[in-house]
Specification:
The chain has 452 residues and is of the alpha/beta class. The chain contains 16 helices and 17 strands. The strands form four sheets. It has a seven-stranded mixed beta sheet with strand order 5-4-3-6-15-16-17, covered by helices on one side.
Length: 452
């Protein structure tokens, strides 16, 4: 949960982050390029040792043993990546890049609401230039660790412009929150105009959606108007859901720290705002918002029955394990979600509640949480950071795995020396901040550290 709406885009190519040079070029897709590597991890199928990926016009044409592909396509431009593994670009299903600059400025608190109040106070010190720089820095960190697609929550247009100009892929969710007493139809009309403007300028790689922040940060009246708008426009949308015990206490008992401390602090009348349903999920259900276009975020306190309801509705989930750990809100029932067949993507949230924006760090943490169990395999964890993240964002038909016909969104990372018959486990355990060698989106090179 990030309250980027309270308080108060530059090209990534050729830039640097944290003083580390990032040799990058902007190469347009060539016809018939064959990349080979020690391993190819398609994610949707078994790893290929000494594999290759054939590209043409920004798409993947074939995946298989490099020797066979070279024989079948002798005129293809051949680029061997010895010592590396080719795999899909990582999909960070939940980010708040506007809050990147708040790293170390919002330390963990004893309780969830105290942390929220500190975040609001720090966010209010950020001017427009600081927000723009924050998004830029956050995107560079994401790219440097191999993320090529993001589910980004935005309150300004900086994320839209910066992500578009950088050439990455993603869904920009324009965030709405508050309990206004004014003209709600006018507010919805202003939202409609903003979304139409962004969609008209988004290009092929960015989709535009809406983020009604959470059931408790929106008045029932505003939420109802947003639901009607979403029913009409058919946009993707994402909502923070069942993240904390305080949230559940509010909906179940109409009391607790949200009502007693948060609402008065932000000027909301705690007496005039009563919880309208027995749970946050019930409120969404009552508004008709449990649909395949919903990406619910966190879901830490979802019950088995609620998980089944999400699956029945065709909704998706994004989990943020390290953020949940930092904020001490509990751990999402991941295995129940996966067993139910819900697409579960992996997100880093923001640096206001996390130490890095690296999905490798997120995967590593999740693996450590389940290291004494055989229930969450490394291959499943990697899938959450690639194909299932793409499914959660509604993009799996185009990206998330290396398959013929899909967009050439891929990365190359150093192959760990400890690889066995499947490099997935070693990659999760050992891939560090300097492992990325290559990042492509639709066949366009965004990062090239090895001069292909």
């Amino acid at each position: 949960m990030q309250y980027s709406g309270w308080g108060r885009l530059t090209r990534v190519r050729g830039s640097s982050y944290a003083g580390t040079a990032m040799p990058q070029t902007s190469q347009t897709p060539r016809d018939n390029v064959l990349l080979s590597a020690d391993w190819v991890l398609p994610v949707s199928s078994a790893p290929v040792r000494k594999g290759g990926v054939l590209l043409e016009g920004g798409r993947i044409v074939a995946v298989g043993p490099a020797e066979i592909l070279r024989h079948d396509m002798p005129r293809a431009v051949y680029r061997p990546l010895q010592g590396h593994t080719l795999m899909p670009g990582l999909v960070n299903a939940h980010t708040h890049l506007e809050l990147t600059a708040l790293k170390d400025r919002v330390p963990p608190a004893d309780d969830f609401v105290s942390w929220i109040l500190r975040l609001i106070a720090e966010k209010q010190t950020m001017n427009d230039g600081a927000i723009e720089a924050s998004v830029q820095r956050g995107l560079e960190e994401c790219l440097a660790s191999g993320t090529t697609c993001l589910g980004e929550i935005a309150n300004t247009r900086h994320s839209f412009r910066i992500l578009r100009d950088a050439g990455v892929r993603g869904v920009i969710f324009y965030e709405i929150l508050g309990r206004p007493a004014g003209d709600l139809p006018a507010r919805i009309e202003a939202l409609r105009t903003t979304i139409e403007t962004l969609r008209a300028a988004s290009g092929e790689r960015l989709a535009i959606g809406v983020s009604p922040h959470s059931p408790y940060t929106l008045s029932p009246e505003l939420f109802a108007h947003l639901a009607a708008y979403l029913h009409t426009e058919r946009l993707p949308y994402t909502i923070h859901l069942a993240e904390s015990r305080d949230e559940m206490d509010y909906f179940r008992h109409d009391r607790g720290a949200l009502k007693e401390r948060l609402f008065p602090a932000v000027g909301w009348d705690p007496v005039g705002h009563r919880a309208q349903a027995g749970s946050p999920l019930a409120q969404l259900d009552g508004l008709g918002l449990l649909t395949p276009r919903l990406l619910a975020v966190h879901g830490v306190h979802l019950t088995p029955r609620e998980i089944a309801r999400l699956q029945q509705a065709g909704a998706s989930l994004a989990i943020c394990p390290r953020s949940n750990e930092t904020l001490r809100v509990g751990r999402a029932p991941i295995m129940d979600m996966l067993r139910a067949g819900i697409p579960v993507g992996l997100g880093t949230d923001s640096l206001a509640s996390n130490r890095s924006l690296s999905l490798w760090d997120e995967m590593r943490f999740l693996r450590q949480c389940y290291q004494d169990s055989d229930t969450l395999a490394p291959t499943q964890i990697l899938r959450m950071a690639t194909l299932d993240g793409a499914r959660a964002l509604g993009l799996a038909a185009a990206i998330g795995s290396l398959e013929a016909g899909k967009k050439a969104d891929l990365i190359a990372v150093g192959t760990p020396a400890s690889c066995g018959e499947d490099p997935t486990e070693a990659l999760i355990d050992e891939t560090g901040p300097d492992a990325l060698a290559l990042a492509m989106v639709a066949g366009e090179t965004l990062i090239d550290r090895i001069g292909i």
